[in-house]
Every structure is written in structure tokens, then in C-alpha cells.
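Quick check before the chapter quiz. The format below is the same one you will see on the exam, so make sure you can read both the input and the output lines.
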Amino acid sequence: MPVTFTTDVPDIDSLSLDASVAEEITAAWNADLNNGEYRLELRDDDPSGDHPPYELETTVPFNGTLEHTIANILGGEQYSVRVRVQTEFVTGEWMAAEEITKLIASDSITFDAIAETSVGLSWSINNDFRGSHQIFRRRADYDYDGQGRLVGSVGSDLNSFVDDSVAPDREYDYEVRTLTQWQYADSESASTTTDSIGLKQHTVPPRGWHAEVDHPSGTPLTPQVLDGAVRRPTINGYPRVEIPVPFRDRWHAEAFDDAPLRVWNDGDREPIEVLEHRSLEEGSGSKQTVLEGRGGTQLDDRVVEDVDIQPTHEFVRYLLDTYTDYNYTVDDPQADQEPTTLQTADTNLELNQAVAEAVRDALADDTIPLEFTDDGRINPLQTCEVVVLSGGNADDQYVGGEAGEAATVVSFDGLDYTIPSGEVGVAVRVGLIGSDPPTLSFEFGGTLLTDTYSPSSRSSPGWFEVGAFLPSDYSYDGTSTNLLVDIVSSGSDNYPIDVAVIFDKRYHDRSAFDNDVHEPGGHLDSPTEYAETIPIDLEVITTPLAISDLSLEVTMADGQAAPELALGENGTETWNTATDTTSHSITYSELATTARGRVSVGYDDTLSARDATPRYGYEPQALDSLTLEATLDSTPVLTNRSFDGKLIQVMREVFGIGNFVSEARWEDGGITIEVTQLGQREASVDPDIADYSIDRQTEDVVERAVVYGGAQQITRQSVTVTVGSWVDLPFPDTRIVDGKETIYDGSTEYSRGDDYGIRYTTQDGQPQIKALSGGSLSDGQTVSVDAEVKPRGEFTAGDVVDETDAKTLIEDIPGLASKQMCDQVALFAVEETGDAIVDASVTIPHDSVEWSLVDAIDPDRLPGDGPWQVNDISPGESETSVELGNGQSADEFLEEVNDRTKRNSERV
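Here is the expected output.
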């Protein structure tokens, strides 16, 4: 008799994709096939990972060219291609690859319909794509990092746009970004100039003062300007002038209230826009009217804004863009970046402090499978108990080759924590069942689940979830208990059970339990006794400075990798996760002042299979230590702010946070607002024209700072007491909140004053306890301690010889969550307030600087490094006095830090 058999086919050796030609992908592969064909399939990928199914692209005969070009596809998109061999009888394994197709930038920008306040532009589209065109605009006379300002977006099939947010008589550069979900391509820039608004050009005298006031009729009046015109430049305010003119009744008429006013001096336009005040004065021998004008009038507009978190300089730009049509230059602030440890933990106390409050609450309620060990580890507890049954039902499909009877009591030793209601899982592995099984009842932990259950016949073992019958509010306290499976009425067939389990549904998925033993009469790989991953959120850290980079590093037992580490992107609860690693880092896409971390523990996945059920996941993997680090950026940031006021008032508040100064000038045909920090720009006038006076005081200098953070509830710590002697409590570098401690031994709770004395902190930050003679505590007795404790940080200036004589600042800042952050703020306190406070008065003559007071202040003439803040402005007729401050008092520093951390915590 002939023998029939099917031969194997060789699989694809390799697959490569080439997308160098627009709207095409060429697939090439290697294989050694002498029969059948190659099947090529294509998939249009989704960035979210929710990919559609593959679709047939083509088939190629076995002796054909092992290359195929896929044409007419979109540019800038990712496609997956897979290929396999197939014959009439056999199919091979798929070989797959992915590639992003070439995206060609749109180009040839042209302009049309150019007007005073609008620009129409169009461009050529060079390939089919799915996405949009983004239009970016830059002022040609400004320096930008990047594309400039995004002014609009249109669909992929549109090639024109009208920008109606431009100013008259300005040159602008435009770029068009061709954007898909996977990549982008930028066009070359093109420039155009908007039309002038057609103001009448005036001939003004090259010397002296000249003014024009618009009459309600529309006719500008040009009064004779008398001697004594006064320019009043200022910082962080409005530019003003006083123009004396011959007295006329008309100047005091209502018609000239808030009339447009234009002023020139020596042929140069001054930053003045409106006539706001007229006063009658005695001049030299006759009456005169003083016309008082002001510029920056758009800074009067009301601003109503809420800021979650945003760098101060970006917010100022947003305000000026949104509420004015002024030109402006806002300098990026001077900023430093410094690596900083936010949280480190390698002891029992530090690990307790490091985890989030929700984790500590769950530990107090005994509803999380974690144990904080005395040797300073976080150990996962067993989350699934597996009981293997044996009896008279023999079959190689059962664990160990045999199963127990239905009428049985399964005894569970229990778990070491409470599984909360809704999360209790109970399941049995049911064996072979004939067509006439018995009717059953189930009882778990003394609770009757169901008294009538009629199973179906089955030809192979599988899992049945008894826990489906549990009441919805049922919780399991972890104590030893029984599962009773009883026969209500018998049938001719058995209901064999070889495995029963209790499990926590938060960490185990019953549908993923193994159904088959690893070998005849062998064991199951799962359910594992320990969870694969137990995520542990860390305490949210809020920082006084912005975060640019964040990293988390852990040490696990025996040097293993953690199942998962996660960091919150930009401080949010959007987690960026890495698996099987000991470290993870991210870069914030925008500055934020919040750090979130998550560590995980689970089972030891390095152990080999054992000869028992389960074969894997039978030993825990503990966390030894963790370190959360950040790069702090000193860029001034607004956090959780709400504004409602005049634009000038809002800007002044923001300037105080960012150490900015501003002034209004007339440049390029309009008002321009200049915003910078003192010392950022080179002085444009002679620095010797200003007079400087300095006052220096050391009364408020801080040489040593001790900072306490927010209170945290720490439980289940132990200490051995000594009668009559102080011993250290297990809370180093902390202070216990007065009266918020509990000393106990089992169910016995001891009383302060009767049984023990307590020092809530000491000079070195070490709380202590003493067992009192005559009390209930015995010498050498070990007791448990629960307490609310505050982390403690300290820093002393390096040149301090005797700490006891140092000028010391001691402060509680509830927004700080770790010792490391307390240390950092203590360091900041000494750095910010450890030097003498210097106040400087700078007197600047107007004639020499015109409107550029900021440029006349030379920080090199001032002691110290800054930053210098403007505390007061006193404009006079011929000069302006500017009061500057360098350094903060302790009270000012603490108010600022408390305010920042409070706003950060409110945002969290």
C-alpha cells in the first residue's frame, strides 16, 4: 500500500522594505521554494496600536521575482508588510516588517490678497498624504527658536490659507509644515510685507518738541510747545509726557477728553498715544495749559486668565499677543539646571514615607498584598493559594495524574491580607465529566454560594469560577477557611476536582490560568502564587523649581530587574512605563513642578520550573531601595494661578515672579514692549550717567536652615524600650506631630505620661522614647509604634564653624513630601538668604536715556550677582529714581516657597 505524507516548506529567510520613492514601498525577500507561491499582505498602521487587519496585496509564484512594489499609497504613513510561503497543502510562518513612507514637503509658497491686516498664501502639494498643513509665521525682524508662531491649520487636500492676524506695514516669514500622524516635513520659508494703513506722513521739526492732538472733527491741531516739556519714562508702567502749550479754552473742553495725541522730540516719535489730563498753570508771565499724555493704553485692557502651569515669559508673550497688537520682545530668562534627588528610600521608615498616601491607607486597612520588612524591603505577599487534590479519579490530564471527588472539603491555609469586596476569586479545576453528572452545592467560608448547580459534561479538564456565586459585597479577611463542594443529588458520573484556588482578581486573571498540565500527569504553570506585577505609586513630589528631566532607579532583591517602572509624563498621571529594568528616565515635553513615580514588585521570574503546581511564580521578588531624581530648571514658572485685572497689573505680578522688567518704546512705526531681566542685555547708553547708592544689611541673613515637610502616617514600626532611659524611635530625621503617636503591644495600648515619655524631636532630628518606672512597660520590651511624622531636612553654610551659634531658620512647609525635598529647600533657604541683603538706588537723568531706563542700569556697578528686582519707581521732571533689591529676607523666601508648594499641591 502506498504511503502518503506532506513535506515541510522552507520559511522566508528575510524581508526588507524600501520607501525611498514617494508613495511607494518595495518589498524584497529571500526564500528557497520549489513549489507553490508567496502571499504578500499589507496593513495601514494606526499610531495608537489599534491596527486594522492585514489585506491581500498580491501573490508571487515560487519561481517569480522575489520583489514587489506597492504603489499608490500615502506619504508619511507607517505600513506593515508580511509575506509567507504557501502551497496547496501547507502554509509557512509569516515574516513581517514595517516602514514609514517618504513624505515630501509642500513648497512654492506664493502670496496674494495682501492687505493691511491680512495675508493670503498658497503652496504646491507634492504628494498624497493623510493629515494637515500647519502654517507658521515669524516677524522678519525678530529672532526665533524654531518655526515661530502657529497661526493656522488646513486639511491635507487644501493648499491655501488667509492669515488675518498680522499688523500693517510689517515683514513676515511663512513656512508650511506638512504633518501626518507619523512625521512631518517643512517647506522653505517665504517672505512678504503687509500694506501700510496709509496714515498721513507729517513733516516734523528736526529739533525740539512737536505735538499733534486730533480734534473731534478729524483735523489734527499742532499747538505751540513752550519751554519745560517733561518726559517721564518708567519701568513696568506707562510712558508719560507733559507738554506746556499757550492757554486756550478749547484745551479744557470735553471734546478733547482722551483725544489721540502724537508727540515728537528732535524728530523722533515718542511712545505716547492719548491725551489724558489738562491742567492750567501760571507760566512765565502768562497762563499756560499742560497737556499730559500717556502711552501703552492697550495695557489697560481687562485680563481674565487661569494658568495651570506655564513659564512666566511664555505667559507674558501670550498676554501681549492676545490682548494687544503691540510689537514686543520678551527675552527668555536666565536659567540654570541642576540634578537633584527628590526621594531616596532604603530603610523601613524611608520606604513607608516614599509610597503614596493611598498605599499607606491600604496598608493600614490590610487590603494590599505588601509587607514592609524590618530589614528595609517592600515584600509582595502571596495573592493566590493553590490546593492540589488527590483521590480515586486517575487520568494523565490531572495534576499529578489524579483528582479528588466532588463531595469534598478543600482546606485553605489563607493569605496574609484582606481581599476587598468584589475582588475575591475562588475557582476549581474540574476534570472529565460524563453525560450524567451530579447536582452540586458550594459553600465558601461558611457562606452558602448556591445550593443547586448542575454542571455540564466535559471531555477535558478546565476551570470553573465558583467565586461567581459570591455576594457582591463579599470580602475575604485572609484567615484559614474551607470550600465545601457537596452533592445534592447524585448522577451516574463523577465531578472530579484536582485543583482549587483562592485568588485576588486585582492581580490574577482567571481566564489566563493554564488548562493543561505540562506533561502527562504533570503540573500547571499557573495560576502563580504571587502576582506578576503589583504597582506601588510613590508620594507625589512637588518642587519649588520646574522639572525638565525625571529618573527612577531601584534595587531589587538579588539584583534582579523590576517588573515595571513608571514615571508621570510632565508630572501627570499619564504613565510612561518601562518593563524588566532597574532604571527609567523621561524628559518633560514642557516644564512642570510635579514628579510622579511608580515602582512594582511581583514574583521572581528568574527561578526555574519546579516539580509542583504552580511550576512558576512561587517565590516573591522584593524591593530593596529606590531613588527618584530630577533635573530642576530655575526658569520662573506660574503654577495654579488665576488673574482678573488690568493687563498692566497682571504683568507686574508676573514680573515679580520672573524677576522681569519692562518698558514701552516707539519703534518701527508703533509701540513696542520690551521685557527682560536686568543684566541680560548690554547697556545701550553710557553707564556713568546714572548715580548709584548702596545699602547693605545682614540682620536677616540665614546661615543654617531646618525644614520640616508635611505629616505622613507611618504604621507598624517597632522599638525596644528601656525603663528610665531614652532610646531612639525608628524615625530618624523627623519630627513626630505632638500627640499623634500610638504605642502598643498586640491589643494593649500604652499611655503617654503613665507608661512612657516621648521627645517628639531632638536637636539632631531624632525622636526618642523612655519607658517610665512604675508604668506597664517592661525593660527590654519590644512595642509597635504608629505615628504621624514630618520629614526633616537641614543645611548649614560651609563657612559656619559652630552650628549652635549660626543664625538658624526653622520652618514647617507642608507641601514637601520627602527628606530630600526638605534638604533641598533648606539649601535654597541658605543660598537665597545667606548673603547680606543689598538695596540700591539708581538715579537716571531723562535727557541722556530718553525712554530706555532699563538700558541705563548697569548691574556691574552693583554688588553681588543678582537677580535684581525693581522695588519702586519715582519719576521726576528731569530724572527717575529706581529702587532695586538683591536678595530676600527669610520671611519673603518662606512666603514664596509656601505659596509655590501650596499651589502645586492644589494642582495635584
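If your answer matched, good. Residues 890-907 form the longest helix (18 residues).
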